[in-house]
């Protein structure tokens, strides 16, 4: 009997399972469970990492309808910042653990949101955004379900800094907008983000070494408590009473669980209940399982 293709509506439920590390035997037997080694590390340093899961249809033929969907995992230590990125994909962002401040930039506007466990938000393709871990002690862990719009299945992001291996988009903004967006003076933005680099003789540093430095040092950076407080002080929080937000974050636990017993709880938000999910025909769920 031929395997039944998985519909996109079920995708984010599978995405949560993809973040679970299990035994090798379970990984081989269950196509819905992905071991950690099925993630490709895109960036990693002492502050955290960004990892990309292998394509779903590479895991099993039953996922052939999901070949245009990709899953990213972001993890960072307290008081760290993922530098601004522009991505040609629609995103469904879910906070798995920790506390974050998400800032979304537009040409003449900036919106910031304080996010906690269970908070979810859609970021349309072309969004410029950056994410900070605002907690003093706990690591931040976030999942992004990405649906590329220009090249199906191929996720391309642009780090908004003047590096050699990724285009810079910050130069398209005026000084006033940049200062308002980052809440700091332009000279500091140049120093930290635009990275006006001095030319060095080629023999002093190979291209490989330069790329290694960019990948490991300039994507996730340490920031001060004062900078975190400045980022988050005017940020909005998710709605705890409604899941029908049109553009802001909503929380998976804003309603009673669909199922609940002594072993755990199952929460779910369907496209019918949330406009952000309707466009992508995706539902979001979360499972709390107790140890036995």
TrEMBL record:
SMART domains in UniProt: Cupin_1 (SM00835)
UniProt keyword list: Signal, Vacuole
Segments of skewed composition (Low complexity): 234-247
Major localization class: other
Residue intervals of the Cupin type-1 domain: 32-190
Region annotation Disordered: where it falls in the sequence: 232-257
Pfam families linked to this entry: Cupin_1
InterPro entries: Cupin_1 (IPR006045), RmlC-like_jellyroll (IPR014710), RmlC_Cupin_sf (IPR011051), Seed_Storage-Functional (IPR050253)
Signal peptide interval: 1-24
GO cellular component: aleurone grain
Compartment list: Vacuole, Aleurone grain
General function of this protein: Seed storage protein.
Similarity comment text for this entry: Belongs to the 7S seed storage protein family.
Name this protein carries in UniProt: Cupin type-1 domain-containing protein
Protein source organism: Pisum sativum (Garden pea)
